[in-house]
Design goal:
Oligomer: single chain
Bound molecules: threonylcarbamoyladenylate, magnesium ion
Length: 328
């Protein structure tokens, strides 16, 4: 038994009979080509059979997502990953250390993956989520499940089942409820098809940890070419219904320019926000950031001001989401 299989055994041993019945029903829907929303350790996903182009098309329709923005294929075993992408040595080293976990690898796709799933690219993105419900669902369906975050395109990602129902309730055949997600921001996406790994999206697994495992630097996508190869980064994302600014705590009052503002961050702001969300640390900031955006847009404030997170560890992912939510 491999180390990953041991980790999975431990996870599966906790599933109850009631859960199993619900998951089996969901797996049947997936096999019939329907959409099922499910929890992962990062955010909730809107899932469909990744190998069925018609099923995958329903994801794009339900989200209102541009069809050239490829999806992540979620797997429940390394064998399943090997059926859809070409793994290399560095990819295997990472997989062994961090799967199941919030790391998505972009690798050469095998022909079995429909072009619809990979947005017409020659590569595909693959990850093994660290969530019992997600893993059980993939295992029961015995298929890779493609799943973007289960929100309407452009809105903050959902970190609980209720938010999924609000955004996409009509479009999905079933929502599996696994409570609040553990991490709160999406997985880290890295391109493993070049010499050095390239960070396509900061996320739940800090870049520093990847560098430590591989002993090589993870490059940031600087030139236009790299940006082109990560289609998701082209679109505005995560946007609340009112404007959002990033700032240091001491500058909040000045930036609000007399407007009613709501504040979130790991410290208190200057001035008098009409609502304040203060998180204990960056981990909690990540856990709460999407829920906070949805809450503060309804607080009666005219503008949300969020504390600029540090550019390291999980802070990099929070900053990326807030920047894109603010329209930068
Ligand atoms: O945590 C997560 O990753 C969540 C949960 C549900 O697993 N999923 C998620 O999916 O965030 P989505 O579709 O919202 O983001 C997928 C990102 C996009 O930025 C997309 O452009 C990128 O991965 N991506 C997917 N396939 C790619 C490929 N072949 N080459 C480059 N980027 C790719
Ligand atoms: Mg998304």
């Amino acid at each position: 038994m491999t180390e990953i299989e041991r980790r999975l055994e431990k996870i599966y041993s906790q599933t109850t009979k009631t859960e199993r019945a619900e998951i089996d029903r969901a797996a049947k829907l997936i096999k019939e080509g329907k959409l099922v929303a499910f929890p992962t350790e990062t955010v909730y996903g809107l899932g469909a059979n990744a190998l069925d182009a018609d099923a995958v098309r329903k994801i794009y329709e339900a989200k209102g997502r541009p069809s050239d923005n490829p999806l992540i294929l979620h797997v429940a075993s390394v064998e399943m990953a090997e059926k859809i992408v070409e793994l290399n040595g560095a990819a295997r080293a990472l997989i062994e250390k961090v799967w199941p976990g919030p790391l998505t690898l972009v690798l050469p796709a095998k022909e079995i993956v429909p072009l619809t799933t990979r947005g017409g690219l020659e590569t595909a993105a693959v990850r093994m989520p660290d969530n019992r419900t997600a893993l059980e669902l993939i295992r029961a369906a015995n298929l890779p499940i493609s799943a973007p975050s289960a929100n309407k395109s452009g809105r903050p990602s959902p970190t609980d089942a209720q938010t999924v129902r609000e955004d996409l309730g009509d479009a999905v055949a079933q929502v599996l409820d696994g409570g609040a997600t553990k991490i709160g921001v999406e997985s880290t996406v890295i391109d493993m098809t070049q010499g050095n790994p390239i960070l396509l999206r900061a996320g739940g697994l800090p870049k520093e940890e990847i560098e430590e495992i591989l002993g090589t630097e993870v490059l940031l996508p600087q030139d236009k070419n790299t940006a082109k190869r990560s289609p998701g980064t082209r679109y505005r994302h995560y946007a609340p219904k009112i404007p959002l600014l990033l700032a240091k705590a001491k500058d909040a009052e000045k930036l609000a320019e007399g407007k009613k503002f709501a504040w979130m961050g790991t410290s208190k702001s200057s001035g008098k926000p009409i609502e304040t969300l203060v998180f204990e640390n960056e981990t909690e900031y990540a856990h709460e950031v999407f829920r906070a955006l949805r809450r503060l847009e309804n607080s009666g404030a005219e503008i949300i001001i969020a504390e600029t997170p540090p550019e390291k560890g999980i802070g990099l992912a929070i900053k990326d989401r807030l920047n894109r939510a603010s329209g930068d």
